[in-house]
């Protein structure tokens, strides 16, 4: 069992503060938020649009910092997170807490000024959901942490849409559901080949408490409604053929990879190539799908 390293007395390096925001996660958050804004059937002032997406980034960064503040002890016991600023002793927890609260508050206030009250309220709730409901209430207590907690990462396209339009719509809700249903197969694929980390930290991820094959079945099962929701906007008339064809092709390949995970019987992380392929593709899947959504939106006037 590892312990948190003692922090030094030097001022925090900006790179350590930046690392608190989970920049790799933020990339996907910002991209899906931007796509939600661009897919909305209205035009938004470019400065206000940029500010709104900046708020999404600041809110995600603040939530990430609060997550790392609370989970510093868990991170110290997992190889893939032990080098983060808090467990490595490069920052103290009070700095992380203040940084997370400051970013979160600034993002909500600025969103309210730049966009509208509803977008700011959803952003505030998404930060609360990730930092408290998922991080504090769910992650250490239930193997369904990712299922319920997946809502936290599903808010950005909804926020982007509402920032532009001021209201909810069926397409924005479907985008939320898409990421919500995508999250379990994405994270369970990862947890299958890093389950020893979660076991060492005492986190009840599904592979730890239910076993490998049960998790693989859940990956395949959750991929089915995810694919259905991904394709749904096309037959519902909410998008055109560019998005529809991309959704069908990408989702079919996602299902193909999930079946590979289901058929796999290996127990060693080095032999879990199907899980690693699905995890890697699942990230590309969202980028490509949301990119197709925006392409479809701007191509629609040209296609008549």
How would you describe the overall organization of this protein?
There is one protein chain. This protein has 304 residues and is mainly alpha-helical. 75% of the residues lie in helices and 0% in strands. It is built from 13 helices and no strands. It has helices at 14-20, 23-39, 46-70, 72-76, 93-114, 117-138, 145-165, 170-193, 195-201, 206-210, 212-231, 241-263, 273-303. Helix 3 packs parallel to helix 6 (117-138) and helix 8 packs antiparallel against helix 11.
H/E series: HHHHHHHHHHHHH
Q: Given the C-alpha coordinates, what overall shape results?
A: flat
- Pairing-aware structural class of the strands and helices? mainly alpha
**Portion in beta strands:** under 5%
- Major sheet description: none
Give me the number of helical elements: 13
* Mean model confidence by pLDDT: 92
Q: Rg from C-alpha positions?
A: 20 Å
Helicity, in percent?
Answer: over 70%
Q: What is the number of strand segments?
A: 0
Cα-to-Cα separation, first versus last residue: 63 Å
Q: Uncertain spans, ≥5 residues at pLDDT below 50?
A: none
